[in-house]
Amino acid sequence: QVQLVESGGGLVQAGGSLRLSCAASGGTLSPYVMGWFRQAPGKEREPVARINRYTITTYYADSVKGRLTIYRDNAKNTVYLQMNSLKPEDKAVYYCATVVDGQGRSWGQGTQVTVSS
Length: 117
Description:
mainly beta
């Protein structure tokens, strides 16, 4: 089973940018649909973006459209989430996961994103 490790989170001012990375080990990501999810304090985990194995983006949450971009580099076995124009409401723990039948299957440990106003 593939293991996922997220990185790139941190503290940023509103309007700033971050790039999250999700690196895989123990297997290749290329066969999988990959997704980024987030969980804000006191809220349920929600999907943010999803990309299929052919690097065609398939989904963005309405709240992030135009600001966040998911992409993947199968040669590097890594999926990315470029986050621009960040807002305080983007504060959450961000997780990457393999996606099977629309649901997260294998999860990373998460990376914290905090946006100050």
